[in-house]
Amino acid sequence: MMDKNNNYIPTIYFPDGRPVPEVLTEKDLIKLLRLDEDGPTEPHLTIQYYRNKGLLRGIRIGKRIRYTKQEVIIFLEKQTDWTNRKQTA
User: Fold this and answer.
1) How far is CA 53 from each of CA 6, 24, 27, 48, 80, rounded to the nearest angstrom?
2) CA dihedral 77, 11, 63, 50 (to 10 degrees)
3) Mean pLDDT in runs of 10 for the chain (89 residues)?
4) Residue 51, helix vs strand vs coil
5) At 24, which helix (H) or strand (E)?
6) What is the C-alpha to C-alpha distance for residues 3 and 12, in angstroms, rounded to an integer?
7) What pTM value is reported for the model?
8) CA 16 – CA 13 distance, rounded (Å)
9) Residue 24 Ramachandran class (φ > 0 left, ψ -120 to 50 alpha, else beta)
10) By three-state DSSP, how is residue 17 classified?
11) Residue 46, exposed/middle/buried by CB under 10 A (0-12, 13-18, 19+)?
12) What CA dihedral angle connects 68, 71, 77 and 81, to 10 degrees?
């Protein structure tokens, strides 16, 4: 799949092997990030924290917040960069 700038968006999968839909619910996102398995006791608050910090952008569809696959990939790339930043002493 390609985004609006003709960049390739890879297919990503849930832990059980099913492909992730293009638009994810909060429950889908929690499952994808595996916050339901080994994460915080209230994973929806973790998602809300990331949104409030501007690290994860959601879109409102009806009364619910959804997350596009592209935004999730961007979020994961940012988190990877932050996690692997070089320590300066």
Assistant:
1) 28, 19, 20, 9, 16
2) -20
3) 64 80 89 86 94 94 91 91 75
4) helix
5) strand 23-24
6) 15
7) 0.70
8) 8
9) beta
10) coil
11) middle
12) -140
| Amino acid, res. 3 | D
Joined together, the tokens standing for residue 44 give 């929806």
Say which residues have a Cβ less than 8 Å from residue 62's Cβ, sequence separation at least 6: none
The pLDDT value given to residue 11:
78
Write out 59-80 in H/E/C secondary structure: EEECCEEEEEHHHHHHHHHHHH
User: CA–CA separation, 36 vs 85, rounded Å?
Assistant: 26
What is the b/e burial string over 52-84, where b = at least 16 CB atoms within 10 angstroms of the residue's CB?
eeeebebeeeeeebbbbbebbeebeeeeeeeee
